[in-house]
Design brief:
By secondary structure, the protein is α+β, with helices and mostly antiparallel strands. It contains 24 helices and 33 strands. The strands form nine sheets. Strands 20, 21, 22, 23, 24 and 25 form a six-stranded antiparallel β-sheet that branches.
Length: 859
């Protein structure tokens, strides 16, 4: 089965992430699912729901294995199940209603009381109820808990248990300031903490045993939490500190209780599961005390977790081990339970053919390849250019290693990759390639609008593409214009001036200043010598850059402080990845993260991700990064470079909407890895927005246009099977002449039309080209009713040029039949190796590919 593993990833270890899953837990879950024969796609759900929606719609999984807790609010655990229900995708675990009820401790207690489940007396307290006298007639001692939290958040052995009204008032006031949704003030009962897990898929045949007294066999044996007596504290409370910071002081073991008490716990667990409608797996927690009425024990229900942790070593796995079921067995049981409930058992067991994977797309992959460095061409160095090299003209280009890695990642999602180097021949090559979408990392060859060239071409041809649009890329490359936009949006950026000669009158800067090329990336032209302390130094540095890069220079005030870079993924509400700090080792007076530091490993800098930040600092950085992304109207991916001054103000240095994607080297790739995304997932995240736009474009296209596209006979370009290989050698495309038969024939090469008779030729999607200037003249068509329209119809309206650059282009012989026949352009075949693209001749009567109802396979 194709399974999406939806989760929140624990990155910082803060209390806010207490309920999230660690990378080790996600690795364990994915491994168990993969060992069971499933295809697993990890989807981290933090960030905007639209991004999660795009990934799920692109992937179309058979089942979602859900551990996502959600971020905020009383209904956070229910959010994603509601989304899955809306999408119609089956998922593991309880539905939205059950999770909502289970997260509300007070509501759960009130509901279960009607089912005869004994629970300590408790009251719900918030600001409103507190003003109405909610704390009157309280029987001490009591324990104060957040009402809508799990994982022992907000619970401490030191102060959660209150023995009098004064303590209670102080704790309630302090906790309401943190947990505004409300608290539960519950009578404290001394005793032993016991958990009882429910895994519906664990059956007797798999090592389970029949339950007695109507207890479902999926209810496991209770597990006891034993706290080391050396841990200080007057009360036996399994608090947040023990659960998350000092787990070595807590031992989980099968509960050491009499058999009748154990069966009572199992029976109550079954009753809770039925009462709340919990599914697949859950966990109930109890406090067990010696009975004052008889020789047995009293069992008090405390709470239920409808989305319990599946961390290896958790209580459910301790209990399952007593039945001889290991970690993988529990995960398989949960999947089986969900499949049985949704009628997917035949698919799980292989008796029903797996739903066919949706049709792949042809993904054009536009790039500029680095050829100036032998090491890079051979894939030796991960960087983009040698730091020691004096020539940095290809610094922003990508090595064959990077290009191959991206192509392989796209292909892993089932797509066909068509490599398209962004040379002057790209317009013809892109037109002939017949791609559905374009994954763009092309930096362009020249000019301050160079990064916008590929997006503009894609927009002209109506091809959806990844990344920001042409306007954003043009603006972001121009540092001076970017700063104007940021300043207008109220975002802090250092005072600046753009100079074209270095002789202009300068502002009254606060020195030192840093001088940079105005329209370069990858920190080209930036070194430690770029920081100057006076006007004369600024003028000299500016003149040097103007002469070297043939463009204006930017002078801006140097911001002393900590430097960060922040990755963002998504569109209108992007997901902000963990900030990475650039830490300068033995820094000079004015450290700079310059060209040399970005191109190779250097001992002068190290990186910390996630950066060590106070919560308020993190929120400020995230807000500035998000606001910058929005101000420039970025899309899909970007990276924002920031400086935090000593006074805490966050200044934007620049934004890069076309960040480097070198595996295990580029900043964004390292940040993504910390955020739980491997390289394939990162590429999938960037591609997801492009695929969404492709679906939307098809959904809104007029039916007449789709029918016309089908009638045009635009046959797909085919790429040879196997991983795409991109070498440093030149791209070659061969060609031959165009021939038109002399008979009553119409040539219709959209948008080219030649008038009036039954035969049409469709050359997808454009004009019929020739290796030399070819025109259809009246003398070349036999005397017959054939007419050749003078305007706007032209066959090969402009001559095909054989490029003098490394790319050579031509077209195979196209023949127009002399009878009422439609001739469609044949599939273009793209071979791998030193990338060679050969356009085959048109094949008569080849069926055109229909784009109506075509399914999209995506990350």
């Amino acid at each position: 089965m194709r399974i999406a593993l939806t989760h929140n990833l624990k990155i910082t270890g803060s209390a806010e992430e207490a309920e999230f899953d660690s990378p080790e837990t996600i690795d364990a879950l994915a491994g168990a699912l993969e060992r069971a024969g499933h295809e697993v796609e990890r989807i981290e759900v933090s960030g905007p729901a639209s991004r999660v929606l795009a990934r799920l719609e692109a992937l179309q999984p058979d089942l979602i294995f859900n551990t996502a807790e959600g971020h905020k609010g009383k209904t956070r655990e229910a959010f994603y199940p509601s989304l899955f229900d809306e999408l119609g995708i089956p998922y593991t675990g309880s539905d939205a209603y059950a999770l909502n009820v289970a997260l509300d401790k007070s509501l759960t207690k009130r509901l279960l009381a009607s089912y005869g489940v004994a629970t300590p007396r408790a009251r719900f307290v918030n600001r409103t109820t507190l003003e109405s006298g909610a704390l009157d007639d309280v029987s001490f001692p009591v324990i104060v808990k957040p009402n809508f939290e799990g994982s022992s958040k907000g619970i401490s052995r030191e102060w959660s248990v209150c023995e009098d009204a004064y303590e209670l008032a102080a704790v309630v006031e302090r906790q309401l300031a943190r947990f505004e949704a409300g608290l539960l003030v519950e009578h404290y009962i001394a005793g032993v903490d016991v958990a009882c897990a429910f895994v519906d898929g664990l059956r007797v045949g798999g090592g389970g045993r029949e339950g007695g007294g109507g207890v479902p066999e999926g209810v496991l044996d209770p597990v006891e939490f034993v706290i080391d007596p050396r841990v200080p504290g007057s009360y036996n409370v399994y608090d947040f500190n023990l659960k998350h910071a000092r787990p070595e002081y807590v031992t989980l073991r099968p509960a050491q209780l009499p058999a009748p008490t154990l069966e009572r716990i199992r029976s109550l667990t079954a009753r809770v599961v039925r009462a709340l409608g919990l599914r697949d797996h859950a966990r109930c927690e109890f406090r067990v005390t010696p009975s004052t009425r008889n020789q047995g024990h009293d069992v008090h229900f405390l709470e239920v977790d409808g989305l319990p942790t599946l961390k290896p070593g958790a209580s459910v796995f301790v209990a399952a081990a007593q039945r001889g079921v290991d970690f993988d067995g529990v995960i398989r049981a949960i999947v089986r339970s969900a499949c049985k409930r949704r009628g997917l058992l035949p698919l799980l067991e292989g008796s029903q053919p797996r739903r066919a994977k949706r049709g792949s797309l042809r993904v054009g992959f536009t790039f500029n390849m680095k050829r100036g460095e032998p090491a890079a061409a051979e894939g030796g160095s991960p960087g983009k250019a040698g730091a020691a090299g004096a020539h940095d003209s290809e610094a922003e280009f990508d090595s064959p290693r990077t290009i191959q890695a991206i192509a392989s990642a796209i292909e892993s999602y089932g797509h066909t990759v068509v490599p398209l180097e962004a040379t002057p021949d790209l317009p013809r090559a892109l037109t002939a390639a017949g791609v559905d979408v374009v994954f763009n990392i092309a930096e362009g060859l020249r000019g301050r609008g160079r990064e916008a060239q590929v997006p503009a071409l894609c927009e002209l041809l109506g091809i959806p593409y990844s990344g920001s649009d042409a306007t954003t890329l043009s603006l972001a490359l121009d540092k001076g214009l970017t700063k104007q936009i940021l300043r207008a949006a109220g975002i802090d950026t250092a005072e600046w001036q753009v100079v074209t000669t270095g002789r202009e009158k300068l502002k009254a800067f606060r020195y030192p200043v840093i001088v940079k090329p105005n329209a370069e990336g990858t920190s080209k032209g930036i070194t430690s010598a770029s920081v100057v302390k006076d006007e004369a130094g600024a003028r000299a540095a500016a003149k040097l850059l103007v002469e070297r890069y043939h463009q204006p220079a930017l002078i801006e005030e140097y911001i002393a402080g900590r430097e960060f870079t922040v990755g963002l993924l998504g569109e209108r509400r992007p997901k902000v990845l963990p900030p990475m700090e650039v830490v300068f080792v033995d820094p000079p007076a004015y450290p700079v993260y310059g060209y040399e530091e970005k191109q190779s490993d250097t001992p002068r800098v190290r990186f910390e991700c996630p950066a060590q930040l106070a919560t308020s600092e993190l929120r400020r950085i995230e807000k500035v990064a998000r606001d910058t992304f929005a101000a420039l109207a970025c899309r899909d991916v970007a990276r924002v470079d920031l400086r935090m001054a000593k006074d805490g103000r966050v200044y934007v240095i620049e934004i890069n909407p076309l960040p480097g994607l070198t595996p295990d080297f580029s900043d964004l790739c390292q940040i993504a890895k910390v955020a739980g995304m491997d390289y394939r997932s990162l590429i999938g995240e960037i591609l997801a927005g492009c695929l969404k736009r492709h679906r939307e474009a098809r959904a809104t296209a007029p039916q007449g246009a789709l029918a016309a596209a089908r009638g045009a006979g635009a046959a797909p370009t085919q790429v040879a099977a196997g991983p795409t290989q991109v070498a440093a050698g030149p791209t070659q495309v061969a060609a031959g002449p165009t021939q038109v038969a002399a008979s009553p024939t119409q040539v219709a090469a959209s948008p080219t039309q030649v008038a009036a008779s039954p035969t049409q030729v469709a050359a997808s999607p454009t004009q019929v080209a020739a290796a030399s200037p070819t025109q259809v003249a009246a003398s070349q068509v036999a005397a017959s009713p054939t007419q050749v329209a003078a305007s706007p119809t032209q066959v090969a309206a402009s001559p095909t040029q054989v490029a003098a650059s490394p790319t050579q282009v031509a077209t195979g012989p196209t023949q127009v039949a002399a009878s009422p026949t439609q001739v469609a352009a044949s599939p273009t075949q793209v071979a791998t190796g030193p990338t060679q693209v050969a356009a085959a001749g048109s094949a008569a009567e080849r069926a055109p590919r229909s784009i109506v109802g075509e399914e999209v396979n995506g990350p």
